Amino acid sequence: MDITIHAGFLPHTDPEASLAFYRDTLGFEVRNDVGYGGMRWITVGPVGQPGTSIVLHPPAADPGVTEDERRTITEMMAKGSYAAVLLATPDLDGTFARLQATDVEIVQEPTEQPYGVRDCAVRDDAGNLVRIQELR
């Protein structure tokens, strides 16, 4: 089989704040920005890697989600326990310094993990955990 990861999905609560984080802070390019019914789906991805994207989506857009489930999703997002993404960089310290110079919520400074990676963690505006590993 020849399979690649094309896109992952992360919920957003504020499309403009999500753009500020993923485009302006992380430097991702915007590949698509689609509005429908007062909601927005924004596709972003790393420059030079057109085959890998993150779709930032409104969490309540799925018609199969009940009101109780929407409340639970909102509560989990507020706690930062709903969604996460794992990114990687060859310069973890430089990347972390640039993130720390912004108003990004720092969850963990660069740390050597017991499972063999060095990484840091921040949260985006919607509470999604963004871990960044050092490429070795």
How would you characterize the overall build of this protein?
The chain is an alpha/beta fold and 136 residues long. It has 3 helices and 8 strands. The protein has a 4-stranded mixed beta sheet, covered by helices on one side. A 4-stranded mixed beta sheet has the order 5-8-7-6, covered by helices on one side. The protein is globular, with a radius of gyration of 15 Å.
Key attributes of the depicted protein:
136 residues; 4-stranded mixed beta sheet; globular
Query: What is the helix content?
Result: 10-25%
Can you give the mean pLDDT? 94
Beta-strand percent range:
35-45%
User: What about the largest sheet?
Assistant: 4 strands, mixed
Write the layout of secondary structure elements.
Elements: E1 7-11, H1 15-25, E2 29-36, E3 39-45, E4 53-57, H2 67-79, E5 84-89, H3 92-100, E6 105-112, E7 118-123, E8 129-134
Quick synopsis:
The chain has 136 residues and is of the alpha/beta class.
